[in-house]
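A note from the maintainers: we've had questions about how concatenated examples are separated. There is no special marker in the raw files; a new sequence line simply starts the next protein. For clarity in this README we add a label.
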Amino acid sequence: MNYRELMVSLFYPALWAYGPTARYMTPAESAALIEDSGIPDVPPELLSTTRTHSVRDAWPAGHAHSLPLVVLSPGYKKPRATLSSLAEDLASHGYVVAVVDHTYETLATSFPDGHVTGCASCDLPHDPAFWQKLEQGRAADVSFVLDALTGPRPKWRGAYLIDSSRIGMAGHSVGGASTLPAMVNEPRIRAGIDIDGDTDTPLLAPGLSRPFMFLSHQLTPTLCQPGVNTSWERDWQQLTGWKRWLEVAGTVHASFTDVGLVMDQLGIDIGASTPGERTQAITRAYVHAFFDQHLLGKQRPLLDTPSPLYPELAFCR
C-alpha cells in the first residue's frame, strides 16, 4: 500500500445549536487511551460515552470565503479528540478548525467502515531521526488536508466558507513541533503555534518570517530559565518575524489538552498545581488572540504584555 487514510474532525460555526451532540471518541479509541494512560478502575468505553458541546453534522454558518482555517495536530499517540476543547473554542469565535489524526502514530484511529488502525510507529526506535521523520510526515499530512479542504474538489460541503488566504496551524507536543516544518514547507500557513513540543527538526536559515508563538509548561521552579529548552532557543534565533515565547506556571505537559481536564475530573493527580480547567482557559485565550491578530488583523493587547487576568503566564522572550 503506497498511501494512508487520514481521519479529520471539523469544528465550525453552525446555523443552529439543536440536534444530537457529537461523541467524544469511539469505544476503540477510548479503550486504547485509557489503557495507555494507566487509569485504574475506569470502564474502557468511558470516553466514548462522553459527549462534546458540538452538534453533529450541523449546517455551517457564514458567507463564502469568510472564515479562517486553523489546523490542529495532537501529541504523539494521542487521538485528535484530545484537542476538542481548544477546537470548539476557536469554532465558537468564527474559525473552521480541522483536527487531524495522523494514522499509525495514534493509539487507535477508527474509520467510518469500522476498521481501526493502531500505533505501528510505536514499535520503531524513537531516536532523533525518528522524530524528525515524524515531524516531516505530519507537515505533509497538513498539506494534504489543506488540499482536501481548499482544492478544486473539496471534501467538505462547507469548504466554500473557508478563506484560503487566512490559514493557521497549532499543535501539542510533537504536533506543535511539526508546525515549524509545516510552515517552512507550506506557504499557505500564515501563522503557527507550538504548544509544548520540543523541536527535533532545526529551523535553518533563512528561517521563518511569519508569526510564530511558543507556549510551554513550567520547566523549572523559576519561570523562563534560559538554557533549559535548547531546541526552542535554537529555533528562536531563526524566527525573524513577530514571535512570542510564553510559559504557564503550575502546569505539566498534559495540562494543555483535554487529558488534563479528564484527569482532574477523575481525581487523578498529574503533577500540575494549576487546574486543567484554568490551563484550558489560558490556552484558549492566547491561542484565540494569536490567530485573531495574525489571521484577521485584529490587534490583541493580550499578546503584548503580561495580563492581570492571567497571572500564571509569563513572557519569556
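[label: protein 2]
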Amino acid sequence: MPAHTEYASWMVQAHDQMSSLLATSSTALGAVRSDGASVAVGSSAQYRMHGTDPLSDVLRTVKLSGALFFLVDASFPWGVEVPHAGAFSSIVLPGAQHVVSYHIMLKGRGWVNIPGVTSTWFEAGEVLVFPHGDPYSMLCEPNQPPEFDAEATIDWFRDMAAGKLPFVSKEGGGGEPRSEFVCGFLGCDMQPFNPVLSTLPRLLRIKRSRDGREDLLSHLIDLTLAEARQQRVGGESIRLRLSELVFVEVMRQYLETLPARETGWLSGLRDPAIGKVLVMLHEQPAHPWTLNELASRASMSRTALAARFSHVVGHAPMQYLTLWRMQIAARLLADSSMKVAAVGHEIGYESEAAFSRAFKKTVGVSPAAWRDGAVQRFCSAG
C-alpha cells in the first residue's frame, strides 16, 4: 500500500475510533443526558458536552494542551537528566501552570529513576508518564552517567523550543544497542483542582497492546510519527493535538488496568454508583445538589454514599462538588469577560458575595485576584 494511502487510512480509522469511544464513554458510566438546551458561549456549559463523561470534562476544563514533542534516536551509551518541570515549563509552554512529561518507548530498553521515589527498568512497548513534574533520569544502564545533566537538558529544551533542532534528535556514544523513544510534554492547570493528576502515581507505566488487537494508542503514535515525517505546513499543530490524544488514551488504558481495590478519582469513574454520581455532578454542577438527592439517584443511603465516595474519590461528595465548581469558575474567570457575579451564578451561587467567599476560602484568593493573575500569566507568556 502506498505510504500516503496508508497514512490516510490510519487517520480515518483513528479519528473514527476516538470519536466513537468518547461518545460512548458516558453511556458506560450510566450518564443521564441533559435537556438539550443551547450552550451559551462563555458559560460553564462551554466546558461540558451533553451526556459528558467526567474524564473528558476534566481534561477540557483544566485546559490540557500539547507543548514540545520530538523523537530521540539514542545509541549506547546514552542518558539524560531532566530537572523538575518548574525549571523548564516557561520554555516548553509559557504560561502553563503545570507540565506533564511522557515518553513512548519504540525500540530498546533502559532505566528510569525518580530520586527518592522509584527506580525501574523499562522496554520497548511501554509508555512512561511523569504526572507530577518530578525530576527524573533516563539511562541506558542504572549507573550510567548522563550525557545531558539537568542544566544541559534545559539548554537543549530551549534550542528545541526555538526550532533550532530537528524533530529527530540523535544522542549517545554511537554504539549498540540502540534505543528510540518519543518525548512529549503537555501543559495543564493544577489549581485550583485537577482530580485526574492529583490521584496518579509519581510514575505511570502503560504497556501497549501486543496481542494483535486493534490498538488506538498505537494508531495515534503511528499517526503522530507519520505526520512528523511529512514536513507539511501546520504539521507541528497537528502533532501537538495528536500528542494530547495520546495522553487521553494512556489515561483510559490506565483506568482499564486499575486493580479492583484501587482508590482515587479514576477508580471512582469505574465504580457503578460513584461513577454515576460523578457524571451527575459534572453534568449539572450548578444544580442545588444535596446528599439526599445524590444518594437517592444512586440508589444508596446517605451514609453509604458519603462513606464510599470519600473512600474512593478522597473527598466527601459535597466537598468534591465545591472543588469542581471552583475549577470551572477559575477557568471562566481566566478565559472569559464574564462578570464575577455571572460566573458565580453559572456554577450555582445566587449572590456575588456568597460566591466570592466560597472561592477565596477554597482557592486562597478572591475571584478578581485570580483573574488578574491569569492575565499576568498570559501577558508574560506572550
